[in-house]
Amino acid sequence: MSASETTMPKSWRLETKPHKFCPGCGHGLVLKVLGQVVDELDIQERAVFGCDIGCSLLAWDFFNIDSVQTHHGRTTPVITGIVRANPSLIGIAYMGDGGGYAIGSQHLVNAANRNDKIFVLLVNNTNYGMTGGQMAPTTLPGQITETTPYGRDVDETGSPTLGPEMVAAISSETAYVARGTVSNMSKLKKFIKRAMENVVAGRGFSFVEVLATCPTNWRTNARDTWKFLDEDMKKYFKVGEFKTLPTEREE
Amino acid sequence: MERAIKEEKRVFMTGNEVVAWGALAAEADIMYGYPITPQNEVMHYWTRLAPKHGRKFLQTEDELSAGFTTIGGVLAGRRAFTATAGPGNILLQEPVSMAEMMRLPMVMAIMQRGGPSTATVIYSQQEVNLTTSGGNGEALRIVYSTATHQELYDYTIKAFNAAWKYRFPTFILGDGYQAKMREPLVMYNPQDKGVEMAASEPFVGKEGKFGEGREPAHLRNAFSMEEELYEVVMEHIQDYNKITPQIVEYVSLGCEEADLVIVAHGIVSRAAVAAQEKLRREGYRVGFFRPITLRPFPVRALRKVCKSTSKFLVVESAFGQLARLVKEALFGLEAEMDEIFMPGLGITSEKIIGHVKKKSELKV
Amino acid sequence: MSRIIEAYVGEYASGKSENAVNRALDLARQGRKVVLVDLDLVEPFYTLRPLKNKLENMGIEVIAWETKDTFGLGEAGYVIKPEMRWALRRKGDIIFDVGYGVQGFRIFNLVEGALEEENLKIYAVVNISRPLTSSVEDIIAYLNLFGRVDGIINNSHLGELTDKDVIEEGIQVIREVSRITGIPVIAISVEKNLEFLAGKSNFQGFPVRFLERYMPQSLW
User: 3-state SS of C120-136?
Assistant: First the structure.
């Protein structure tokens, strides 16, 4: 099955489709790839999907996979706790940039450092979507959000958080770390599959950040949405693998 | 699971160790914890014992994580617990509110510190408000306040069983003094005493295939409709009210024929009961009432006491945190309330006796 | 007269401090100059601190934290006071009350001159009512953790529930430990209010140290 295929993944929950994400939102694309990978690895009944607060919350009934909606920033420890207690389960922690890099950053840092055998899948759309488009740790310099109405001033509020770079720096040699984008679905699928395989094999912590679109909060039409994702975001966020088996690395 | 306690045995221990051994006897599978004085030896002893008994431990990055990983352990169907104090208890309230909403049987031991803020580490009952009523919600939880090491052991076992039977987050509330003090107790295997061990079962990752007796679990704590939330919360409240008579525990001594009833909980109740006994011997008509469960509070029992005695002396190492529960329980009844409030300080029986003799018009 | 240098080590809550305090006071009563060193690094907040003044009034020098100096120590974990490091440079008998979590003999790396000090005796205080040191095997395994133990103080008791049987079971178990390891039993320590038991039990010939209890005052 290819990433561009139009059929729904088997692990998707049909009763909850069409899903509730905005038109043009990147979440649906990320979750499609995740569903395909779950199908291909045949782990639907062993996986536990945890979702954060924020737009990622809308994924709580997205799959026919055991799913837990947690608190903002706390998906990583909940999934860590599950897998520590029952290592035969495959833990997936799904969150946004606010959940992973702001309110839950200590959990991400420490789960990565402890090499917890879980997969953290983080969607970076440069803002807090569900609470109304506020500045996120990943907001680009100069980007206008509800809490940076004159544009993000890096002297005042810092520069975009480079999550995979950070996780790669603090995680073990057996970790898998990558940044993908919804503008390259086949590459994204490759990254997510390697991340999941790393966890299924019990090898190490896996982390994939996905550059994703948020036209609703960006207030962009289709062309500008794609331009923001592919040009503006890529100035700061390098797509590629940061930590992988040496034979697999792809820049 | 193998029996951790081979045979009933008298031992000499510190309170923190008792919690670790009690958890072992209660068939706890995994502890998640973060260092904070004065609960550290709960972790120290659990980490020494756990590998010998096939149990697990994870040291987390903070108490938020300790609480949420404990939730993860519970979701996986394991008897999971954590222990903390003071500022750690504040962080713990966030996961506990998730457990309250989702009826997750997490178990926590709290060894109270002085407060507010960092404060002190030995002696305090200042986490009663937080432990009985923390979180954003209706604070549906079970709180056992222990006074002796035997109780720490008994109620640690009971906490796991109550949590899994009734599916509410459950606290064992001790304090820094109990944590560190030493006294003998009897360790036993709960099954040998006929204790019914509530079964634990997974919420996620169950055995079996979807569509063959198993459906994917979709668990959440967010709701879109007010009515939907109302229904869920009211159902929890009704459950809580229904089981309250089964959970509530208290000690009442000589309250039927008393002119004054001393009310105290936890470690302070030891001084209070000693004072009551001494005053009785000296001819003072004094009773003693001790809530063991601070939540649910023994409202009915205390109101019954109030029918025969309406004078109360509340004694606590806090400034009115127990008294607030007492007043709420007695609301609408005629009652006189005296107090010894010593936030963060120890209270001796001599202090209570002196107070009663000085302030009270009770005549021998 | 050579000076007495003894270090009391052992499992958490085994009675190290009570034995060290009593030994120090006993030596002082014999007219000796005694320095008691509170080498509890793990939780200095909980140990001899509240007793320091009282003990000094009873004629011994105490190297321990003073309450006014303990700010933050409830949180600090491992802390050593400079005077503790140089304790052996002091005159007189030195009694070390070594806290738990010592990781064995390595604690003496922190005390200047301890490893070369030929008079140093390391005594392990053992209470068989402590669950992790309740059997012969467990105690031997525990003593092995220290690397070096010169003697055992048998402090087996059950607090206020201590009776003749508890003490005699302790004697049996510890005697067996001593037989297997070759480590001598220095004394049996028994709470003073159980002195009457001396009539009933001859403690099988072992020397007995009757203990006054000081440690409960250290918490209340």
Answer: EEEEEEECCCCHHHCCH
CB of B21 within 8 Å of a chain C CB? The answer is yes
Q: Which residue of B has its CA nearest to C130?
A: B12
Q: What pLDDT does C2 receive?
A: 86
Neighbours of C189 (CB within 10 A): 22
**Which pLDDT score is estimated for A4?**
53
DSSP per-residue letters across B13-45? EEHHHHHHHHHHHTT--EEEE---TTSHHHHHH
pTM for the model: 0.92
Domains (ranges, CATH) in chain A? Answer: 25-243 (3.40.50.970)
Q: What is the pLDDT of residues C206-218, one digit of tens each?
A: 899 999 988 776 6
Distance of CA C99 to the CA centre of its chain: 9
Take residue A183 and report the two structure tokens written for it: 């503008």
Report yes or no: A143 and A191 within 8 Å, Cβ to Cβ: no
Q: In chain B, what are the domains? A: 9-193 (3.40.50.970), 250-359 (3.40.50.920)
3-state helix, strand, coil in chain B (%, to 5): 45, 20, 35
Nearest in space to B317 (alpha carbons), one of B245, B246, B267:
B267
Place of tokens 């010894």: B340
Q: Are B75 and A106 in contact (CB < 8 Å)?
A: no
Inspect the interface and report whether the beta carbons of B11 and C131 lie closer than 8 Å.
Answer: yes
Cα separation, B34 vs C57, whole angstroms? 40
- Of B305, B315, B313, nearest in space to B257 by CA: B305
Chain C contacts of B10, Cβ < 8 Å? 129, 158, 161, 166
| Out of B58, B202, B218, closest to residue A60 by CB | B218
Question: Who among C132, C134, C159 is closest to B184 (CB)?
Answer: C159
| The predicted structure's pLDDT at residue A249 | 61
CA distances from B343 to A25, B271, B290, B291, C9 (A): 54, 16, 18, 19, 35
Q: CA–CA separation, B276 vs B264, rounded Å?
A: 11
d(CA B271, CA A242): 62
Quote the crossing angle between the two packed helices A105-114 and B63-75, to the nearest 10°: 70
Are the Cβ atoms of C13 and B13 closer than 8 angstroms? yes
The helix (H) or strand (E) run that includes residue B155 is helix B149-166
Taking the CA of residue C128 and the nearest CA in chain B, the distance in Å comes to: 8
Q: How many residues does chain A have?
A: 251
Residues of B in contact with C76 (CB under 8 A): none
Domains of chain C: 5-218 (3.40.50.300)
What ipTM describes this predicted complex?
0.93
For residues A223 and C41, which has the higher predicted lDDT (pLDDT)? A223
Query: Which are the contacts of B127, defined by CB distance < 8 A and separation ≥ 6?
Result: B85, B86, B89, B110, B112, B113, B115, B173
**Which amino acid, residue C123?**
Y
B186: which 2 tokens?
């009897």
Residues of A in Cβ contact (< 8 Å) with B60:
77, 110
Alpha carbon distance A22, A26 (integer Å) = 9
